């Protein structure tokens, strides 16, 4: 993979781990799977202190934890993919639904790239197949003129397809999946004989994600809902787990960007605590809060701190301070609705001000920086 690639696929980024897991895998595998359910779980949740021999026997490798959340959810998701039913991951934005689907597909059948991106503009052709119109005009409807969709390729090769943001598609487009998920067959009426019918090979299944919160979401038909096992992916509740994850990911992103900015633990705690309290509607002191419309997820916390650190790198002193945190915190918490600004201001002038008076430190610096930003506005 060239160094200029911004985000390699999971099967490329974690190739050494996947190779080591495959070499050590002695557990039963579902037909068509590259790894057993036990090893897929280890790939996603990590091997802890245990290490595996690298492929070829050159040293050992620890399998890192990639998904932080409900371990039982991961197990249920893997079992679903080994069954005839498809998997639907539902949750608020930023809860790692897409990342989990990518990791599952990469570990189970070797690729995470057979993906359909759902939107209001998605058509049935993009889900099933389309045509090379130059060949179609020259030769008519022949097999070589057909352009397979990612779902078509997954059925043909016995792999897992991914469907991002399924409920952003119109209902009639969503329902084009009903027959495929029921019969595991895709028909091409324009072609004759064996070319006109595609039977899914062993290993094929579908992972879809759906957003339960944003505008622009369409209801699923009852017929399609019955073809899926639903799993709800929820935000991380443990603040210490979330802080460790945010700190790790921010440092990783800064290293990739070539920005040597220290990320103080205090800054991580400020952002994570603020996001957790605002999305729960309650401070740790028991103060009731107005919940913003913006999705204050772990992914948003990572993006906020990363942006604040880059601000310090390019425009500041090279050290992440309260001013950068306050500035980008305001942008994240008021992302979706103008009235969220007032909700954030009430949080600062009640919870943050009280903590600043009692404890000072980073909360006092955040309060001062917030008020300075307000005066400059």
Automatic annotation (TrEMBL):
Single GO term (MF): ATP hydrolysis activity
Alphabetical list of InterPro entries matching this protein: ATPase_dyneun-rel_AAA, CbbQ/NirQ/NorQ/GpvN, P-loop_NTPase
SUPFAM superfamilies reported for this sequence: P-loop containing nucleoside triphosphate hydrolases
Superkingdom in the source lineage: Bacteria
Domain annotation ATPase dynein-related AAA: ranges: 87-228
Protein name: AAA family ATPase
């Amino acid at each position: 993979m060239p160094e200029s690639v911004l985000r390699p696929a999971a099967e490329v980024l974690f190739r050494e781990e996947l190779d080591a897991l495959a070499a050590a895998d002695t557990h039963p595998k579902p037909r068509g799977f590259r790894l057993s359910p036990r090893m897929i779980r280890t790939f996603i949740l990590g091997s802890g202190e245990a290490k595996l021999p690298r492929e070829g026997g050159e040293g050992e490798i620890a399998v890192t934890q990639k998904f932080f959340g409900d371990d039982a959810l991961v197990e249920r998701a893997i079992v679903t993919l080994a069954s005839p039913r498809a998997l639907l991951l539902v949750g608020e934005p930023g809860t790692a639904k897409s990342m989990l689907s990518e990791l599952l597909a990469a570990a189970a059948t070797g690729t995470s790239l057979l993906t359909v991106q759902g939107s209001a503009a998605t058509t049935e052709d993009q889900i099933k197949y389309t045509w090379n119109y130059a060949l179609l005009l020259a030769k008519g409807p022949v097999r070589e003129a057909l352009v397979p969709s990612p779902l078509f390729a997954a059925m043909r090769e016995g792999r897992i397809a991914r469907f991002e943001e399924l409920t952003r598609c119109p209902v009639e487009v969503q329902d084009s999946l009903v027959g495929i998920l029921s019969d595991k067959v895709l028909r091409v009426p324009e072609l004759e004989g064996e070319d006109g019918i595609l039977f899914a090979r062993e290993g094929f299944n579908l992972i879809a994600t759906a957003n339960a919160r944003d505008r622009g979401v369409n209801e699923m038909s009852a017929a399609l809902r019955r073809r899926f096992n639903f799993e709800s992916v929820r935000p991380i509740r443990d603040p210490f787990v979330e802080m460790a994850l945010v700190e790790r990911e921010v440092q990783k992103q800064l290293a990739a960007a070539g920005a040597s900015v220290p990320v103080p633990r205090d800054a991580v705690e400020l952002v994570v605590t603020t996001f957790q309290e605002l999305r729960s509607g309650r401070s740790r002191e028991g103060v009731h809060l107005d919940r913003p419309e913006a999705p204050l997820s772990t992914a948003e916390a990572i993006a906020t701190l990363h942006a604040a650190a880059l601000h310090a790198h390019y425009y500041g002193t090279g050290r992440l301070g309260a001013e950068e945190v306050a500035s980008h915190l305001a942008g994240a918490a008021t992302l979706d609705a103008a009235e969220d600004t007032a909700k954030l201001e009430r949080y600062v002038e009640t919870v943050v001000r009280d903590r600043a008076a009692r404890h000072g430190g980073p909360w006092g610096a955040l309060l001062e920086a917030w008020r300075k930003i307000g005066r400059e506005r």
